[in-house]
Amino acid sequence: MAGNEWRAYPVARARRYLEPGPVVLVSSAWAGERNVMTLGWHTVMEFSPSLAGCMISAGNHSFRLIREAGECVINLPTLALLDAVVGVGNTTGASVDKFERFGLTPVPGEVVAAPLIRECHAAFECRLAEDRLVPDYNFFVWEIVRAWVKPAPEWPQTVHYTGDGVFMVSGETVDRSADFRPEMLL
Amino acid sequence: MAGNEWRAYPVARARRYLEPGPVVLVSSAWAGERNVMTLGWHTVMEFSPSLAGCMISAGNHSFRLIREAGECVINLPTLALLDAVVGVGNTTGASVDKFERFGLTPVPGEVVAAPLIRECHAAFECRLAEDRLVPDYNFFVWEIVRAWVKPAPEWPQTVHYTGDGVFMVSGETVDRSADFRPEMLL
């Protein structure tokens, strides 16, 4: 990842960033077109292979690109990118290049054709793992095949959507590892 | 919900509490047995019907109860319940009644047999909607058929798991509704 602060990160540890439930920016590319969408409906599903499930509504312009490519990138924005998060979620890629409009810099990935977003704290390159629930639920299961994370800050301020235009910003961390059974910390 | 602060809440608005990604306590009951587990791997999947997807590992004692009953309750704990959240996640219902051990009060639901947890800020009664991904991924899709929420505080402090025994506590809220297209606020 030349010219970038990201470092390679173990894919099996992606849960650190995704399990707390932040809004993410999902980028895609297909047949010369690219796009990015805002997404809050996702969950970790497994450590290894590293799986993440995403409900990507078929009403989104990104849906076709993602469905055809069978790939995407899950990018983790921070509070500093909230204008872009809101803007991306309130425009359609059918009429706007959202990267240009919202000052997001596309960066080539190592495995997938979809662009990573340089301004994000982390980026997870994803390949389709399971699509049985796509026809009925628009629910994709992705395997995270590469993970890139900025080494600092240790705890980026993430934004978490509650609906009605209101976001919750991540707060303090509480370390309760001393109360965990050792095998629960693997 | 006699003797309780909860009020009925529109099931289509459950995303307000679940989309930000908090740790939840999933309670279950089957054949005279009851249990509760800690869960961070869940996502909203639809407004109406109100759907939530949960990865419930088959290694959990709760798995069989939930699988057999086809029902559960998703309870939303706050920071005040962190001792119980950690305790529930580090014990097994095979040898302990976790309700008694951790001071959680089971309350009968209106639709499902699984108990609601009185100390939680909110409780969502769930019926199985979709189990095609259970055999391969332990992934259940639930329909939230009743929702109960305490009217105060407006923004409870929720806890969000990051792994390694560390929790993020929900912070401030930021209202950006003025920047949303009206149809995005429905």
From TrEMBL, chains A, B:
Its cofactor is FMN. Residues 16-163 form the Flavin reductase like domain. The keyword Transcription regulation does not apply. Keywords: Flavoprotein. GO terms for molecular function: FMN binding. It holds the Pfam family Flavin_Reduct. Belongs to the flavoredoxin family. This is Flavin reductase like domain-containing protein. It comes from wastewater metagenome.
